[in-house]
C-alpha cells in the first residue's frame, strides 16, 4: 500500500517542497523523511483521510526543522514560516498538464551539464535509485554519487533558481527531458518493472500532446511503444527470451500498429533525431523477415548522431547478420565497455558462432557476474549449459 502511495504521491510532495524551499536538496531529504515517518505511523494508526496532504505537511515540517538547524538558509526559512499548507498544494499555472512532467522541465536546467540534468532529474523525480542511474550511465555507484553531489553543490553555489520555465523556453530543455523519459522506460523494460514503462509512456503521450508540431516526441513515443509491444513475449518461465525466439502471438498488435503510425508521423514531420532512428530500427526488427542491411545502415546513422559505444555494440549485432560474426567481433573487441553486461553477452554469442567454446564460456561467465536480474541470470546460465 505504501509503495503504491509513494509512486502516486512522490512527485506531488517533492513539487510542493521545491515550491516552498526553492532547494532541490532540502526537498528530496524532507520528502524521504516524510515517507519514512508515514511507513511507521500508518502501519500503526492506519491511513489518514488525505495521505497526500499528510505527506506534504509532514515533509514541510521536516524541511523547516532542517533549515532552522542551518543558519545559512535563514532567508529560505522565512519563506517557509508561513501558514500551514491547505489540502491541495498548487503549482504555478503553466501550459504543462502534468505535475511530474512539469518538474522534469524544471530540473533540466540549462546551467547544469546535460548529463547532470538527466541524472539529477532521474534521482529526484524518476523513481530510480542511485545504483540504477549509475548502471544507466555505465559508471560506478560512487562516480554517480559524486556527480549528483557536484550538481547539487553547483545549484546551491550558483543560486540556480528552480522554477518552471516559460513556454518559449521549453524546447531548449527537450533534449534532457527526452533522455530522462527514455532512461526511465529502459530501466523499467530491462528490469521488468511495468510501472516504470507505463509511467514513461504516459508522460511521453502528454509531451506529444503538448508539442504536436515537434517531430521528435512522436519518435520517442513510437520507440517506447514498439519495444513495449513485445514485453509479454520477452520473458518466459522467468527467463529472458531473445527477439528471434519470441512467440509473436504474444506481441501487442495494437501497440505495434500505434508505434508504427507514430513513426510515420514523426518522419512526415521531418524527424531525423536519435529516438526516431531507434524507432525505425525497432520497427524493422518487428518484421517477419528482418532487413539486416537496412538495420545496419540505421545504426550507422545513430552512431553519427550519438557517438555512443553502446550504439556501436548494437551495430555489431547487425553487422554479424550481414557480414558474419568475425567482422562483428572485431568491432566489439575495440569497445571500452568492460563493465557493461551486454558487451560480454554479445561477445559470448559471437565467439560461440565462431566455435570458440572456451572464449564464449569466459564471456558468458563475465556477463553473468554483471547481471542484475534473475531473468538475465537464467538466460545466461542456459547459454552456458548449451556450450
UniProtKB/TrEMBL annotation:
RNA polymerase sigma factor 70 region 4 type domain location: 106-155
Boundaries of every RNA polymerase sigma-70 region domain copy: 12-71
Taxonomy, superkingdom: Bacteria
Pfam family, one: Sigma70_r2
Alphabetical list of InterPro entries matching this protein: DUF6596, RNA_pol_sigma-70_dom, RNA_pol_sigma70_r2, RNA_pol_sigma70_r4_t2, RNA_pol_sigma_r2, RNA_pol_sigma_r3/r4-like, WH-like_DNA-bd_sf
Annotated DUF6596 domain residues: 173-266
Keywords: Sigma factor, Transcription, Transcription regulation
NCBIfam families the record matches: sigma70-ECF (TIGR02937)
Protein family: Belongs to the sigma-70 factor family. ECF subfamily.
Full protein name: RNA polymerase sigma factor
Origin species: Nonomuraea helvata
